[in-house]
Every structure is written in structure tokens, then in C-alpha cells.
Write a structure and sequence with these properties.
The longest helix is centred in the middle third of the chain and has 21 residues. Helix content is 36%, strand content 16%. The chain contains 9 helices and 9 strands.
Length: 342
């Protein structure tokens, strides 16, 4: 074995520590070199930095919040254009399914739930409606209810992969908690589900809308009738539809609550228009309800659409607008065409 001796150098290297001024200058130079059109860097008093990845959006007050209501920050002329366009789409989609609506209204008459005084062929003539349609509807409702909403709850769990004791216990906890949420916490789930099963065989399609209600502080599951969900008549599925419009009925007091909370834009909508479509009128007749005067109820159109909004465009790596439309949920009031939320 050979010993290797290496002498240490006798010279010392002096390292100079830069002062505060040199550090700040280096940070500024580095920021100027690396800054791109869609990145903005600002220094703070404590020596840190704030980085904005899209100055055009951040410059709009509140626009950087993903859940902000953009209707509070956009120009009124742009909001008016969006409202008119969506209102025209709603009218076109509505008129394209008039034949379905007429058939649906005539089918509700065949249930025979409502007694009518006849004048033909003579006054007070008797009439008979065969109960086969009503019987079929109620049988479907009862059988589907029994299968889909059993006494121990509708939620079932399935373990994917290797099954062990720990996973089984976890699946049981998930099942029990979800059943508790649906059957105990979400008070509207069971009656809304039962009502949905009645209208499903009549209209051919029904929908469920599950969302978080900030006012209630919990998840909500609502039944949406087919006549309240407007899509292009040529759409084969909701995924293929270029727009989905949910027609909402809301009282003046509930609308004011949403405006005060900031969920909807606080604008004066005036008096709600007196309107009622044929399907609503027929459904109320079947329930034995006759509305003599319209209550203070507004009709909102919640439009799930793709839009290219000025100031919030989709941009490429160079910061240039691509023209690609982005998904938004736009809520407008039908009578005034006012945009309440984006």
C-alpha cells in the first residue's frame, strides 16, 4: 500500500457576501429576464415577491377568484349581449320540441285523474278514461322504488382489487355514512326521488341535480322534470349537447337572499311576468290546484354553455387568445334578460 500525501494550499480564498442593495438588484434583473407576457412579478416590502400568472385577469378586481361572480366585473354592454344570445338559444331549443310538449300534455289527460264536465254530445254526458296508463305508471313507480330505495338505504359498496379486513371495514363505514347522509341529512332526497319515478314513465326522461347549497350548508338532491331541462332537440346525450339550460322557479324573497349573499348580482328586476306554460298548467290540474293569481316568482335560466368572454379568454403559451370557448354556468332572468351570475 502506498501512502499518498497531498499538501493543502497555503492560500485562502476570500468570499464576499453581497449587501441588501446588490441582492435586490439581482432579483430585479432575474425577474426582468424570466418574465413572460403572462407572468407578472412584484416585490413586497418584506423582501418577498408576488407572482401573477395572468396579469390581464388579475387586473380585473375579483376576477382572479375561480368562484367569483364575473357578472359583477364585466361591462353592462357585454352582459347584455350574453343575456340576449342565451335567451335566443333558449327560445330556439324550446320551439324545437313543441311536438313533444303537445304529446306530453295529451298523455297527461289520458291518466284520468281529473274529472271533467262534458258538453258533447250533450250536456253532462258521462265519459270514461281507461286506467291502463295510470295503472302502468303507478306499478312502475312502486317496483322501481322498492328496488332503488330499499329500507336499509340505496348505497352499496364494492371493493376493487385485493379484499382484506381493513378494506371491508372501510367500505362498511363509507356505505353507512352515505346512507345516513341521503336518508337523514338530505331531507328532500326520498320525496323528490319518489316523485321522479312517477314522471319518468310519462315523459320518458327525468333528471337529478345534486349540488352543495350554501344557504342550507349541505348537499342537496333535486328532481328536475324533463320540461324544465332544455337542450337542443337533436342532442343524443347531455355530454354531446352544446348547451344545457335548467329552468328555475324562485320566489322573490329567496332571490333577494341570494343577491345579498353575493351569489347573484344585485340588480333590480322589476315585477315578475305572469306566465305559465301548458305543461305546468296541466300538472297543477292533475294535483287539483288552480292558480288564480301568479305569486312573486321569477323564472331563471341556468345555462351551462361554452363562451369566449372578453378579458377571460383561453390563451396559448405566448399569451395570445386561442379563440377556444371555455365552460361557464350563466344564470339570467327570463323576463328582463339580466345576467345574474357567471
Amino acid at each position: 500500500m502506498a501512502d499518498i500525501d497531498k499538501a493543502l494550499p497555503n492560500t485562502l480564498t476570500t468570499i464576499q457576501v453581497p449587501g441588501q442593495a446588490e441582492v435586490e438588484q439581482a432579483i430585479q434583473e432575474d425577474a426582468q429576464q424570466s418574465q413572460s407576457p403572462d407572468v407578472e412579478i412584484k416585490q413586497t416590502e418584506d423582501g418577498g415577491a408576488e407572482i401573477s400568472f395572468d396579469p390581464s385577469i388579475a387586473s380585473q378586481e375579483g376576477g382572479q377568484d375561480h368562484y367569483a361572480n364575473l357578472a359583477d366585473f364585466l361591462d353592462d354592454s357585454l352582459l347584455g349581449e350574453i343575456g340576449s344570445t342565451l335567451q335566443e338559444q333558449y327560445t330556439d331549443y324550446k320551439s324545437s320540441r313543441q311536438d313533444w310538449e303537445k304529446t306530453y300534455v295529451n298523455g297527461l289527460d289520458l291518466l284520468g285523474f281529473n274529472y271533467k264536465t262534458r258538453t258533447q254530445p250533450f250536456r253532462n254526458a258521462s265519459g270514461v278514461t281507461h286506467p291502463v296508463l295510470a295503472e302502468s305508471v303507478t306499478q312502475f313507480q312502486s317496483q322501481a322504488y322498492k328496488e332503488l330505495l330499499p329500507a336499509d338505504g340505496p348505497v352499496r359498496t364494492q371493493i376493487v382489487g385485493v379484499i382484506d379486513r381493513q378494506k371491508e371495514e372501510q367500505s362498511e363505514r363509507v356505505r353507512d355514512f352515505m346512507n345516513y347522509q341521503i336518508m337523514n341529512v338530505m331531507k328532500e332526497y326520498e320525496p323528490e326521488f319518489d316523485q321522479m319515478l312517477f314522471y319518468l314513465p310519462l315523459s320518458g326522461s327525468t333528471f337529478k341535480k345534486v349540488y352543495y347549497d350554501a344557504m342550507l350548508g349541505r348537499a342537496v338532491s333535486k328532481f328536475i322534470p324533463a320540461d324544465d331541462l332544455i337542450v337542443p332537440y337533436t342532442a343524443t346525450s347531455l355530454e354531446d349537447a352544446e348547451a344545457i339550460i335548467h329552468v328555475l322557479k324562485i320566489s322573490e324573497n329567496d332571490l333577494k337572499k341570494q343577491q345579498v349573499s353575493g351569489f347573484y348580482k344585485d340588480v333590480d328586476l322589476g315585477e315578475p311576468p305572469l306566465q305559465q306554460n301548458e305543461i305546468e298548467k296541466k300538472q297543477l290540474e292533475l294535483q287539483g290546484i288552480r292558480v288564480s293569481k301568479q305569486a312573486d316568482v321569477y323564472t331563471l335560466l341556468e345555462c351551462h354553455v361554452n363562451l369566449d368572454i372578453e378579458g377571460f379568454e383561453d390563451r396559448d403559451q405566448n399569451g395570445e387568445p386561442t379563440g377556444i370557448k371555455l365552460p361557464y354556468v350563466v344564470t339570467i332572468e327570463e323576463g328582463s334578460r339580466e345576467v345574474l351570475a357567471i
